[in-house]
Amino acid sequence: MMNLLEDLRYGFRMLEKNPGFALIAIVTLGLGIGANTAMFSVVNGVLLRPLSYNHPDRIVTIASLWKKSGSHGNVSAPDFHDWHEQATAFESMALYEGDECAVSSQNGAQFSHCTRATSDFFPVFHVSPSYGRFFSASEDRSLLAVLSYSMWQQQFGGNPGAIGQTIQLFGRNLTVIGIAPPGFRFPDKTDVWIPSNGVFPETESRSGHNYQVVARLKNGVTLGEAQAQMTTIAGRLERQYPPSNANKSAAVVLMRDEMVRNIRLTLYLLLGAVGVVLLIACANIANLLLARATGRTREVAIRAALGAGRARIVRQMLTESVLISIVAGIVGVLIAISGSAALIRLAPQDVPRLTEIAVDFRVLAFAFGISALSTMIFGIAPAIQASRLDLNEALQQSGGRGGSGPGTRRLHAILVASEVALSVVLMAGAALLVRSFDQLLKVDLGYRPEKIVVMETDVPVSDLETSKRATQLYKRLLGDVATVPGAESVTAVRGMPGQASSNGGYWIDHLPPIEQLSVTAPQAVFSIVAPNYFATVGIPLEAGRDFSGRDTYDAPFTAIINEALAKKAFPNQNPIGHMIFCGMDSLNGMTIVGVVGNVRQFGPATAPWPEIYMSYEQHPRPSTSLGIAVRTPLAPGALEPLLRAKLDDASAEVPARFTTLEAELSNSVAAPRFRALLVGIFALVSLVLAMAGIYGVIAYTVAQRTREIGIRMALGAQPGSVLQLVLSQGMRMVLSGVAIGVAAALGATRWLASLLFDVKPADPVSFVGSAVALIAVALIATFVPARRATRVDPMVALRYE
Fold first, then answer.
1. Which long-range contacts (CB under 8 A, 24 or more apart) does 641-647 make?
2. Which among 258, 352, 264, 254 is positioned nearest to 57, based on CA atoms?
3. Which of 447, 578, 602, 698 has CA atoms 20 to 30 A from the CA of 80?
4. Which residues contact 309 (CB under 8 A, 6 or more apart)?
5. Phi and psi at residue 257, in whole multiples of 5°?
6. Which residue has better confidence, 561 or 522?
7. How many Å apart are CA 630 and CA 454, to the nearest integer?
8. Residue 412: alpha-carbon gap to chain centroid
9. Bridge partners, 611 (sequence order)
């Protein structure tokens, strides 16, 4: 302990004597530790921390598994009920479906997330109501509601008397019977839960995959055992119901894994990228320590001459490194606190569990661990190198200066080449992601999103008649909005372009018997639109006509298809006049009256699907939640109050929410933008660190070789040859690092393949551009000290000692 205290006191004195070195090292390492800790706080909150439920490792999701493609998705209600009756591996199993809807209470109407669920839903999570109770199996068809704790506070002021009061949902009065516990809002921040058959009956078709399933494993049952049992049950259903269940099985997945499936690779990529930045920072500090240790050669030699062994000298050097790491770790934690908040703001809003991100004990332990690891990375090599010295030669050096031997110069070169190689890997990855994002922005969407304001609405309805009245309300509203100053073109749509709200099978010219309807029917996106939709959003009409006021519920049903469906279903034919059937809300045949251009319905990264457009008046049931789209030269903020006033005049019970098509498009590319931005920032930081490292090593080398350069110039060496000498020394290190980095990047970037759009992992532009950029930066970093070397005065250099 006495030796340790002596080492610490001596280490503090040495850092105080070299404040510039200490500040650079602490800031460099602190930034690396802070960025890593901030990124780890996100990974911890989203991927690693257990869900905040009772025994969350027992909660699973069960999905339909399509054996041919290996993909899994939503579940049909009949399949679920068979699973529920036949499976014995689960303590409880529940079916649910959630969506945004209008909820009216004593404080007016608002958009809320509503979930229809079976009675086992709350038991799956082992939650108990804060007040009242949850609905039971016998109340599956009752008009009841359970409110989230936050909605209870917002709408009823936290009054226990809310139990027994009513709210309006889907045009029905529902009795509030319970309040969920604080913090429980599964799924998707639900505000209201209602019985699965309370307002609308479940879809009875096995081909109607509209629901999701969550379950809790029994104690002692493993995930593999549950999967085996569900595979057996699904195989039995496949044989029993071949038209609908052919090639369909079931997939059992831990709920946490399913929640983070789409974001896991992105977060691990970012954590790896910021880890590379830390390695580069450590290499930089190692070079600084190595240069500093070389300058302390006589000091170390004297300590050795007085009896200090190699282990004692290494320990002293490491103690100084530990001090740097401790201070840098504290700085890093402070950076991480603000950095994690910045990451939350930048992250796409569909990232799950964002509210659970925090700098907790596990994150602090990570910061401590990474600080200790950093000490080992940047401290060991310089410490060992400093202890390897020729005692006689070191004591004979004059003027207190130490020289650098071949071993030290070799270690400098290895560290610089490592920095360069790591920077190339990071820059190549960033270039790929940036080019991929750029390609995504250049995609032809099939529509023009600029200058379109959207007022999202939801009319509460309960049956076909109230749905018809809702379409008439929309018809009047569209006419009123068309008179608003600045409204150049007005329409309505269920599901904005780029946000397909429904899809399913379709049939051309004839409809098979109901019992023969199969999930293998060709699939298309279903869209509900009002007249003038295509002109308003800029989708070209290729053939036929648009919908008009004549396409009412009592008129013959019509449809418009996109070019992708026309080419697939009518090769070398004119589709106009043919009949098409689909399961949107009825199986009535529709005459095709038009063909329009393709739209990327699932975002810019997904190719256009076949699409069927239907008139909102002919399909009133799904036409009760429409977005009023207005093309206008005005700013969105100027138009919103005018649109809201028209809606209030039409109905005060209809909530509204405003957005723009450009904002929705921006949201659809939020994840690739997030990846490209952060990895790009990390790559720039790595480039700056590499530049600083190269400059530092070459400047140090020039300083060490001042006498040699002076002698060369005294013997007739020209400034150009000196410049060439220094540049060649620096560029050899850089070029070897670039070669290693390119080889490493070719292997590492293969993991990015699933994240890239229209760019190959081995894209030559990205690799060549990264290598050239780094070589150019290295030339600049090397040229400055090299230029200084050409200005050495031989007379000054020769009498230096």
1. 642/484, 642/485, 642/486, 643/453, 643/455, 643/481, 643/484, 644/455, 646/477, 646/480, 646/481, 646/484, 647/455, 647/457, 647/477
2. 254
3. 602
4. none
5. -65, -40
6. 561
7. 6
8. 38
9. 525
- CA distances to 440, 541, 662 from 447, in Å: 15, 11, 11
> Residue 470 is which amino acid?
A
d(CA 49, CA 355) in angstroms, rounded, equals 12
Residue position matching structure tokens 């080019």: 435
Element (H, E) at 489: strand 489-494
Q: What is the pTM of this model?
A: 0.84
Could you tell me which of 368, 395, 334, 415 has the C-alpha nearest to residue 734? 415
Q: What is the DSSP string of 420-455?
A: HHHHHHHHHHHHHHHHHHHHHHTS--SS--TTEEEE
What is the DSSP annotation of 281-349? Answer: HHHHHHHHHHHHHHHTHHHHHHHHHTT--HHHHHHHHHHHHHHHHHHHHHHHHHHHHHHHHHHHHHS-T
The residues, any chain, with a CB within 8 Å of residue 743's CB and separated by 6 or more, are none
Backbone phi and psi for residue 390, each to the nearest 5 degrees, phi listed first: -85, 115
**Distant-in-sequence, close-in-space partners of 70: CB < 8 Å, separation ≥ 6:** none
Q: What angle do CA 181, 341, 437 make, to 5 degrees?
A: 110
pLDDT at 25: 80
Neighbours of 786 (CB within 10 A): 23
Q: Are the beta carbons of 436 and 766 closer than 8 angstroms?
A: no
Beta bridge partners of 711: none
pLDDT per residue over 677-686, tens digit each?
999 999 998 8
What is the end-to-end Cα distance of the chain in Å, rounded? 41
Q: How far is CA 366 from CA 24, 38, 234, 273, 387, in A?
A: 23, 10, 44, 17, 31
Most confident by average pLDDT, 118-122, 418-422, 775-779: 118-122
CA distance 131 to 177: 8
Asked if the peptide bond before residue 243 counts as cis, ω within 30 degrees of 0, the response is no
Report the candidate in 638, 629, 634, 615 with the shortest Cα–Cα distance to residue 664. Answer: 629
Is residue 173 within 8 A of residue 145, CB to CB? The reply is: no
| Residue 137 to residue 119: CA distance in whole angstroms | 5
380: tokens are: 């060991």
